[in-house]
Amino acid sequence: MGVSYVEKGAHTRFTPASAIRPCIGDGNGVTKVTRDGNRGFSFLSAAALASVSEVAGKVAFKMMQFYPDYWAYTGDASYNPTTSVAILHQVGPDKNFMPPNQSQSLGNDDQCFWALTTMSAAEKRFPNPPDNLPQWLSLTQAVFNTQAARWDRGSCGGGLRWQIIPLHSGYAYKNTISTGCFFQLGTRLARYTGNATYAEWAEKTFDWTYNVLGRGDGNEELLGINCLQWSYNAGMYMAGAAYMYNFTNGAGKWKPRIQGILNGTLQDFFTEPPVGPEHIMYEVTCEPCLTCNVDQRSFKAYPSRFMGLTVKMAPFTKDAIMPVLYTSAASAAKQCSYGEDQNTCGQKWYTNEWDKLWGVGEQISALEVILSTLVDTLDPPVTQAKGGTSKGDPAAGGGGSGIRYNGKDGRGGGVYGWVNSKGEFVPHTPDKKDRVGSIVLTVVTFKDFVEAQLELSRSSDLLNPPAILSLPLLLLLGMLFKVPEQRAKVHPDPVVGE
Hints:
Catalytic activity: Random hydrolysis of (1->6)-alpha-D-mannosidic linkages in unbranched (1->6)-mannans
Distance between the termini: 26 Å
Radius of gyration: 22 Å
Strand content: under 5%
Structural class: mainly alpha
Number of domains: 2
Main location: membrane
Number of helices: 18
CATH class of the largest domain: Mainly Alpha
CATH architecture of the largest domain: Alpha/alpha barrel
Helix content: 40-55%
EC number: 3.2.1.101
GO molecular function: mannan endo-1,6-alpha-mannosidase activity
Keywords: Glycoprotein, Glycosidase, Hydrolase, Membrane, Signal
């Protein structure tokens, strides 16, 4: 998963932890906390959008889901214009969140998380874009349509591959988060629109995942299943199942499914002695030994968000979920009193020492879990029939899977490539020259990145120049070691859409 400018540069200001802890669960107190914690994100997003064309990146799309929720919880509309600009910046020419600036490494999960953002905007009645721009619901439907066209029955009987374009190494396998996000997207569209076709897709997706498990090789035989447990997978399926429970008016199969996922989540992703005090959220696979990568350091944000949604959609879960969210939020607050400004959050909420890891992942995780304690203050998400105002388009997305081979819709097989300036299809297979090109592009990209961050650091106290200068070097080294997987873009972008 790639790393964006935003996720490496954001440094969010928090109210001191001593002032946060008494406020957990209190509307006015948490609103103050999240407003304070949000300032750094919004300033950086606005400044970066103005200076860097490829700002959105991979943790940024997950981060943007926070903003419609933040507005709904707090009533603070000051960040709404920036939020809308940031979302619409990434819609791409076919209005399906497949922008050319992300074509090198776009995954189904990346595209789908943007759709969850627009779905949340529709459900929360976040202010709609002007009529001449894509609407929240139609953008969500566009992503669902392109991903439904990629459902791959040819291997393992279904599922979505991780990455979208076969030139990328991630096309070789199917993973839980891509398929799970598609599942949740279907459940939320079913509830919002009342269209049972979305629910049918959702049920088929859940059943396929249950039968296949985690991640498997995308060839004919299922090989190499990865059984590592990640909290955002559990949260994704939990909330999706809760939406189906709500949509089906409590149909029998969904309650035990929710309960099973919830039981596993509480067992696997909340501490018990000797790891730490009871009932504090943690990323069991990588957090204890501090081996989480940048992406994984944001994962706790998503079960925090999705467990809150689960409470709204399936109220019988409230007594099990809310106590662990309160405990986790209070512990997260304690971890947000470090750094030179004493406002920097750490990763391990269950310890009394700072692990000296900071960034968007740590900040957004703390913000989300604290905000989730206010879930009782919100009305349930609206639907098209009851309060929804976002306009939809069931045929949105341009048709097909959104990619091409030999000038046709690409869902597997065929010769993939690009269209040159004359409109001619150019077959392409990455080679050594591409890998050299990747290195050159990486160096150029980070030159621009350093200049942008230095400009930000001169104009605010949000960023620490010495720390920021070290980040591009560390990330550059990581990129160079992963060049064969990068599949360099040394030709024009692949054509998207039909």
